[in-house]
């Protein structure tokens, strides 16, 4: 039987947390549920304490200084303290469905497979959250990939470098990974990234470990969309958006430097990083940097729309 540690970072999620935790409790495969309370300003800590007192599977952690450190640091703390042979993640405003670990029961019979992922559905918890989400993302009922895949095809697919479109990023809620793989490859969430640390982690994971898709045509977990979802608050190609994208792609670019990656992948990281870096510059220095970059790598012109937007904001 699988031996799973479920890691749930908690910040201002008092309204949703109990439903999230109760969705993970019934599974025989779940050995422990680790709540990392990240100095919430609501009564999340009290909810965590009540749940931990009521259910022996639940472990409550806080950062040593009891301060707020963000989701990445909270997940890293959960990884460090976990005792299961497998790791899964769950956001405090989301929940698992009864089929959450159906694919895992057979996929991990193959010792080569180090992780698997499935599809995540969407539940609109507020009308405002629904409108904001649908204004920025396609109104798809599933966050999933387009076809079954495994191994390096997943890594290349996540970067849009496969012959056919692989699909969107799969969500952390639908990922199950062997703890041994996380430890072997020293995988942790980048704590510099306040957003996109999940995508950063997933791409690095897909390179280092052998992943295989599980249930991708129906949801195995649900995302709760509400007024306070951070990802819907950022205007696409705004200065804030561009800066966060730069940090994300720069993280991947720096990670890639000592590795033996295909040239098209290294170029992809560089061009993405450079495009968002240029978008944050102004005036003469921006023009010089842009021309220098074009001379070295004309493919930067394929990302012209970012410069057009940035120019209109200056």
UniProtKB/TrEMBL annotation:
Record's superkingdom?
A: Bacteria
| Record-linked InterPro entries | Glyco_trans_2-like, Nucleotide-diphossugar_trans
| Keyword terms of this UniProt record | Glycosyltransferase, Transferase
Q: Which GO terms describe its molecular function?
A: hexosyltransferase activity
Q: Is Signal included in the keywords of this UniProt record?
A: no
Q: Where is the Glycosyltransferase 2-like domain?
A: 5-102
Task: Give the matching CDD domains.
Answer: Glyco_tranf_GTA_type
Q: What is this protein called?
A: Glycosyltransferase family 2 protein
Species assigned in the record = Chryseobacterium lactis
